[in-house]
Amino acid sequence: MPALNYASAPVKTRLLLVYGLGGFAMNLTNLVMSQWLYERYVVGGVLAASTFAVLLLAGRLTDAFSDPLIAFWTDNLRTRHGRRLPFLRWGTGPFALACVLLWTPPSTFDPTGRALYGFVVTQLYFLMYGLVITPYLALLPELSADPRDRLNLTTAQSTAALAGTLVFALTGAILQAGGYGAVASMLAAAVLISFLPAALTLQESRLRTGTAPAGLKEFPRWLGEGLRNTDFHPLLAATSLFWFGLNLILMLVPRMVQEQLHAPPGTVTLVMLPFIGVSLIGFFVCNGLAKRFGPHRCFTGALLLAALEFPLFGVCGPLLPGLASAQIVAALAALPAAGFAVLPFALLAEVIDRDAERSGHHREALYFGVQAIFQKSAIGLSVVVFAWIQANHYGLVLVSLLAGAACGLAGGIYGWTKSRGAGV
Questions:
Q1: Is 3 a member of any domain?
Q2: What angle in degrees, to the nearest 10, is found between the helix axes of 395-419 and 233-255?
Q3: What is the pLDDT along the chain (424 residues), one digit of tens a residue?
Q4: Residue 4 domain-assigned?
Q5: CATH assignment of the domain containing 111
Q6: Which residue, 49, 70, 82, 364, has fewest beta-carbon neighbours within 10 Å?
Q7: CB 139 within 8 A of CB 7
Q8: How many domains does the chain have?
Q9: Which residues in 303-340 are b (16+ Cβ under 10 Å) and which e?
Q10: Which 3 state secondary structure label does DSSP give 203?
Q11: Burial class (CB in 10 A: 0-12, 13-18, 19+), 180
């Protein structure tokens, strides 16, 4: 297959496919980790809940140091293969291996050994995730300067992510059939399928690498400029808060199925299938609405809709008993989730373009890396909060209410800020 030079040609179907594939593993690995890692390590008796929460939070805190350094590295790397592709080519295999190690902890270790193993593999997983995903995402602003093309690219990415969500919905059934070894193999294969096509067929343009690379001593200045960029703040706050709420819901679903519906883990698949179908429709509806009414308004609407719908997960058992009710709630939640899947990266590309116009530097990965710090920290905090709230008799209800409140705050911040500025 010949290399694709995306800088010299309009965005076409083949490029949409190659770039969009990355959304498959990016989404699948995150979703499975969010929903099943607690089950694997805590419910499965590998680690105590407190130890698990500390290890996950430590991994997210380590990300706060590694992600911006990875971003700075890829923004300023100069090789004959480009700035991003070396990371995809050399990082995809180790990322797949980290997925296997994370989900297959040895059963013969004592508690101290299991804790040490958990610490090492979670650190490895988060590091490899950043080394692959950050350069991959940083390609987006370079593929096209047209906002409509960017929406098409993120829609293609979201469609592949939906395929990942479909596999994610089948995780309960896969777990019942083959155990966590099957889950680990599934995730490793997904990583290879998602990123090897881009790593082996894309050819980077040199149009964004004309300036001399910055040295490491300039890293604090670059990071500081990114953090002080007021265009970036509302999007950063909104996406972090939404991830906090969404991750609470993802961890809630298996507990809801087993504690409120009194069903086996495989029933999680049945709960999530309506989510898949509605999301597929939602991606294209959101794409069209964003082109008609503007992505900022549509993003605000998606956040506020999540604030109304996420709390319904907490009442599926007490007030809305039965599998059908849980499926309806999941289908409703797919609508705001579809908007969140399509819009934020396209909105971030706008922020990056304005920064490049002001500064003269193309530092796409820096913004994706900084955003990842806050989002991962929000996800890590949600794990700690979930483990703490679970001890309460009304834990699932409280978790769902907190998830809705986080999304409502996100919508309020983003909508109010953008209503006072340009581009709405």
A1: no
A2: 160
A3: 444 444 444 557 788 899 999 999 998 998 898 778 888 888 888 888 888 888 887 877 777 788 888 989 898 888 877 888 899 999 999 999 999 999 999 888 888 898 999 899 999 998 999 899 999 998 888 877 788 888 888 889 989 988 987 888 788 888 889 999 999 999 999 999 999 998 988 777 665 555 667 777 888 888 888 888 899 999 999 999 999 999 898 888 888 887 777 787 778 878 888 888 898 898 889 889 998 898 999 999 999 999 999 999 887 766 566 788 888 999 999 999 999 988 998 899 889 888 888 877 788 888 988 887 888 788 878 878 887 887 565 778 899 999 999 999 999 999 998 777 644 4
A4: no
A5: 1.20.1250.20
A6: 49
A7: no
A8: 1
A9: bbbbbebbbbbbbbbeeeeeeebbbebbbbbbbbbbbb
A10: strand
A11: middle
- Go through the chain and tell me how many residues it has: 424
CA distance 307 to 330: 14
Residue 358 structure tokens: 């002001």
Task: Give domain status of residue 66, yes or no.
Answer: yes
Q: Could you tell me the residue range of the domain that residue 103 belongs to?
A: 10-419
